[in-house]
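Example record for the data management plan.
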Amino acid sequence: MKKFITGMVTFLGLATACEGQGNAYETDSFTTPNGKTVKFHALVHASIRIEYDGKEIQIDPVAELDNRKIDYASMPKADYILVTHEHFDHFNQPAIEQLTGDNTQLITNKNCADQIGYGTVMANGDVLKLADDISVEAVPAYNYTAGHTQFHPKGRDNGYILSLDGLRIYIAGDTEDIPEMADVKDIDIAFLPCNQPYTMTVDQLVKAARTIKPKVVFPYHYSQTKVIVIPAMLEKDGIDVRIRHYE
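Corresponding structural encoding:
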């Protein structure tokens, strides 16, 4: 059962566009049911910058990973920072500090909040209303494959369903194609991880996408996994798969 902090908003519709030239990072733009623009910037691996209606939302910000440096100093301070769990490729205190301004709200699991010393803690099933048109739900993210469960044990980490003016975004976090994905409904845009042994295989990601049925899928957190095969695998399902630099 969900533990409601406050209620969720309602899905209404979707329109999309893609930008490439003139941006430091690949950017995809979507339009909410009420005509507001949501932009996703592919930073690195599991780090996503979201712009929405004058608000800045950062997902799992990491300043440096595999010789790739993210210039957070050039970005506006975040209104909201969402962190899924405490692994180094998701939780990076220098990046969080660089993005934090007077009104920044950090939202994370208990372990990260304990380590950094502050933050709004969400557990699986919690729902938080951040503004009249912004809400976030924490959902399960874990491994179930034998020999892999130590990486992401059940109940510790979060995935998030972020709702922006009715546009529903599933940020899966580090997870396999767990049974709880059957409860993830009405998703417009899904960020699904794809690198074993830590998250999903290509086949697991395809299965997860068919379970969730989003309009758009971004494979992310994929390192050296050959995700280029995924668009063809989901073509008959009518799912728009977009490969960006989320190695």
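Summary line stored alongside the record: The chain has a mean pLDDT of 92.
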